[in-house]
Automatic annotation (TrEMBL):
<feature type="domain" description="AAA+ ATPase">
    <location>
        <begin position="213"/>
        <end position="378"/>
    </location>
</feature>
<protein>
    <submittedName>
        <fullName>YifB family Mg chelatase-like AAA ATPase</fullName>
    </submittedName>
</protein>
<dbReference type="InterPro" id="IPR014721">
    <property type="entry name" value="Ribsml_uS5_D2-typ_fold_subgr"/>
</dbReference>
<dbReference type="InterPro" id="IPR027417">
    <property type="entry name" value="P-loop_NTPase"/>
</dbReference>
<dbReference type="Pfam" id="PF13335">
    <property type="entry name" value="Mg_chelatase_C"/>
</dbReference>
<dbReference type="InterPro" id="IPR025158">
    <property type="entry name" value="Mg_chelat-rel_C"/>
</dbReference>
<dbReference type="GO" id="GO:0003677">
    <property type="term" value="F:DNA binding"/>
</dbReference>
<dbReference type="InterPro" id="IPR001208">
    <property type="entry name" value="MCM_dom"/>
</dbReference>
<dbReference type="GO" id="GO:0005524">
    <property type="term" value="F:ATP binding"/>
</dbReference>
<dbReference type="InterPro" id="IPR020568">
    <property type="entry name" value="Ribosomal_Su5_D2-typ_SF"/>
</dbReference>
<dbReference type="InterPro" id="IPR003593">
    <property type="entry name" value="AAA+_ATPase"/>
</dbReference>
<dbReference type="InterPro" id="IPR000523">
    <property type="entry name" value="Mg_chelatse_chII-like_cat_dom"/>
</dbReference>
<keyword id="KW-0547">Nucleotide-binding</keyword>
<dbReference type="InterPro" id="IPR004482">
    <property type="entry name" value="Mg_chelat-rel"/>
</dbReference>
<keyword id="KW-0067">ATP-binding</keyword>
<dbReference type="Pfam" id="PF01078">
    <property type="entry name" value="Mg_chelatase"/>
</dbReference>
<dbReference type="InterPro" id="IPR045006">
    <property type="entry name" value="CHLI-like"/>
</dbReference>
Amino acid sequence: MLKKVFASAVFGVEASTITVEVNVDKGVGYHLVGLPDNAIKESNFRIAAALQNNGYRIPGKKIIINMSPADLRKEGSAYDLTLAIGILASTDQIKAEDLDKYLIMGELSLDGGLQPIKGALPIAVKAREEGFKGFILPAQNAKEAAIVDNLEVYGVENIKQVINFFDKGEPLEQTIINTREEFEKNLDFPEFDFSDVKGQEGIKRCMEIAAAGGHNIILIGPPGAGKTMLAKRLPSILPPMTLHEALETTKIHSVVGRVKDTGLMAQRPFRSPHHTISNVALVGGGSYPQPGEISLSHNGVLFLDELPEFKREVLEVMRQPLEDREVTISRAKFTVTYPSSFMLVASMNPSPSGFFNDPDAPITSSPAEMQRYMGKISGPLLDRIDIHIEVTPVPFDKLSDDRKGETSVDIRKRVTKAREVQTKRFEDSDSVHYNAQMNVKQIRKHCVLDDASKQLLKTAMERLNLSARAYDRILKVSRTIADLEGVNNINGAHISEAIQYRSLDRDGWLG
Ligand SMILES: Nc1ncnc2c1ncn2[C@@H]1O[C@H](COP(=O)(O)OP(=O)(O)OP(=O)(O)O)[C@@H](O)[C@H]1O
Ligand SMILES: [Mg+2]
């Protein structure tokens, strides 16, 4: 007898429905067709054991399973449950009237227990679009799938529950989430708060500016100065995520199977890959493409701690996605695109020994060592970083001060206000939404200086020996500082402040 069961395959961050046809006939054999990979081919062993351990079996007949569309690549073990239920239905071991109303997925353990799957959220989105009544999947993924409205989501622990549901009409427990409520509940509680950071008023101000204009930033300071601590708190002062952004970001995390218990991610992600990371792990890829760290940071912050320690080629592959805000991975038969719109925060020690221009430093580096160290980051990547700031450790009396600093929620209010000004400024543009994204034409239009400010900038550029590339960055950052103040015209004070944030352009470092 022929029976159909339904599952789904994920490409990029979208899913496609897969129809699994199971046909049982006289004879012997077990054939799986329709481009399944090795993990699926091995599934018959897991299915056989799981069925046997629950009082069912794969009968000694000729079983042909066809997964269509055949040209769509299907990977992984997430189809175990689909196939098992299909086999039971087509061999009349269970009743199967409603099979076509559900999407059924999950990896089986030998005892019939279920292991989580990847991509539950995009699969649920597609299932609703295609009019399925419900989605039956491993309990660990239920919350993530239940983000989708108008789809019944049933998280199950083992195959027995699914069998009893179809065969005996035993109800399954539905996972119901009020998506908007859940989202709003999670919005205001950042994991790390700026109020934990003592002193460092200047750096906090600088990070507020970076957040307000979406400027990439590099923190330069000796070990223990608090660079990592500060960077971790940046997501908490970025404007709150919109529900749309939260869904986008959760989808990407779902694809790699890493959605946390909270289900919908209402906090902007903070990703901090180690400097030994590979190209593929950073930008995404692999023979079955998976998103990389730059996509897991989508709508949040990517922190590259100890920037000069990263391999130069790894930093190079990041350049294009940084510009395009998405990354495209091409294979012979298909192409997938992952979004990758993130704020880059980098950190570095001032020299390979950790110190620079510091007479009290325990060790110092030779000029040649310095040059090699800086040479790794100079050039194209640094060109995309608007703000450089030196972080010096806070003195002991400030560290021991019990008073709490300003909270992230309060700082974020100012950032959000400045972002609203920018949203309005760029409302006619599809690709530019905040100051850091301005192209040359927009800089000329929106960063007009009066004669006095122009003169100030000219003098500073000459005196501090600032590079030409610094010029446009200073203008962009000045624009953001003016926006934070709520004024339309950029003045001398805005320019002077922005000039301070170009440490690496000055003599001594990049020269
Ligand atoms: N301003 C500060 N307020 C409160 N605690 C601080 C501050 N600065 C540093 N600390 C404490 O010092 C620890 C070390 O800071 P952190 O790891 O952020 O330094 P770092 O600059 O990243 O150092 P490294 O170069 O070694 O990575 C923090 O975990 C924190 O406990
Ligand atoms: Mg650190």
